[in-house]
Structure formats: C-alpha cells, structure tokens
Amino acid sequence: MTGTNPSLGGIRNVVAALWLLFVVGVCVNAQIKKDPHRPTCSTALCRKIRSYLRTHYCGQSPFGNGPGDGCDIKSPKMPRNGVDFLANYHCEWNETKKDSECKQNGQPSASVRNLLFQELVRLGLPSNANGQTHFDVLKPGASSWSVAAAAYSHTVGEEIELCQVIVTIDQNSHVTVLRELPFQKADIDVPQVTQWSLVDLADVDGDGQVDVILEGDAYENHWLEVVSLKNESPQTVFSGLGYYL
Predict the structure, then answer these.
(1) What is the pTM of this model?
(2) Quick one: 207 and 182 in the same domain?
(3) Most CB contacts within 10 A, which of 50, 145, 198, 245?
(4) What integer is the mean pLDDT of 56-80?
(5) pLDDT at residue 138 above 70?
(6) Whether residue 96 is found in the same domain as residue 154
(7) What is the pLDDT at residue 7?
C-alpha cells in the first residue's frame, strides 16, 4: 500500500487557498470596476464627507437594488440658512397621476442667463432649438460667487434632445465649468447619458469652505458627488451613496 505524503497534501491546501484568494480578489476588483461612481471610501476625509451626506441628503436606506450602504437621495428643504436659492427647478412624483410634476421657481438674472446660454451654445445647442431650458442658481449668503445650472431638453418622437452645464460664476463674471453634457439625442426611455443636478452648497468636511453637492443620473443609477472649490481648479472629492434600479 502506498501512503499519502503529508507534505504534498499541505502544499495542495496552500495552493487551493491562494487560488481562492486570487478568485475573490478578481471578483472584488471586477465589482469595483463595474461601479466607478462608488469607489472604495477608505480615508478619514472620505468617511467624514459620506457621513455628512448621509445625514443631510439621504432618505430611505438601503433603497432600490443597492448598494447596501446606499440611500434614496433627498433635496434640502428651502429656504436654508447660509444659502440663497435664486432659481430652482424641482420635480416631485405624483402617485395619482403616475408622473412627475415639475416647477421652475425663480429665474437667473439676465447676465447669468446669457452666460449659461453661451455655454450651451458652446456645447452644440442649435440657435433654433425648440425645447425648454430649466435653471438652478445657488449662492452662498456671504459670498460674491454663485453656482448656476442650465438644462435643455426637447422630445422629438422616440428621442430626447439634451444639453446641460453646471458652472461657478465669480464677481467678475468669470465662468468655471463643473459638469457638462454636450448637445445630443438619446432614447427617451433609456437615455444612455449622464445628467447632473445641482443639489446644494455646504461645508461637507468642516474646513470652513463651501463645497458643491451634485447628483449624477445615468439612467437608473443615481449617486452624489462633492466638488471642492478651495483650490485654483475644482476637484471632485467624493463620489458615492445613492441607489440604482
């Protein structure tokens, strides 16, 4: 009778364990790559921002089909101390009508409106466009700058025309683009584009500087992003939470 070599069995166990770790690692990395809007939040600063967002902009959690630490995104109540909502476009779901009801509250000033349309034209909006443009303008109460958004849309048959921009505007009317969506047509039911909403202005990390809070919408995937303005160029310092269907 031939006996089993115990050292050979140990080697096989080690190899099997290493292979299992390799497979798990590949699966984890693949999952992360599949969800670029929710990268791993491992730093103390990221966790601090995420905690602030969960407290102020999260409703039901978890929500939809995930992620497990995600949530339904809620807009801040207005008016809010420290932030002037000069223009706001807001939609709410009407359960009776099974449809969204949207309303434009306030309008940007003529100068801000002109700057926003210049940006939309730069992004390809035709001069004879027949759709509607909605606006959001938020301003920190004690500051001379503001954040403004313009979103154009127009339904044409089974397609929808879209064009969008979100910018900061300083006291000298200098524009810095935070997010943009070049003019394009998309399927009205499944638009394969990323659209953006201006959610709020707040000091999310307690450093005394106001940050811009945005919502990304890639069809049925919704998430929050935070843009820091304290450096010369805007920097996205957080992306995550939200939900997908």
Answers:
(1) 0.83
(2) no
(3) 198
(4) 89
(5) yes
(6) yes
(7) 54
Quote the tokens at residue 225.
């992003």
Distance, in Å, from the CA atom of 158 to the CA atom of 152, rounded to the nearest integer, reads: 17
Q: Report the C-alpha gap between 160 and 182 in whole angstroms.
A: 13
Q: Is residue 123 located within the same domain as residue 210?
A: no
Distances 185 to 44, 165, 188, 221 between C-alpha atoms, Å: 41, 16, 9, 19
Say whether both 200 and 144 belong to one domain. no
Which of the four pLDDT bands, split at 50, 70 and 90, describes residue 181? very high
Q: Looking at residues 43-52, what average pLDDT do you find?
A: 97
Handedness of CA 65, 66, 68, 74 (dihedral sign): negative
Tokens coding 164: 């969008």
Is 14 part of a structural domain of the chain? Answer: no
Domain that holds residue 200: 39-74+194-245
Number of domains in the chain: 2
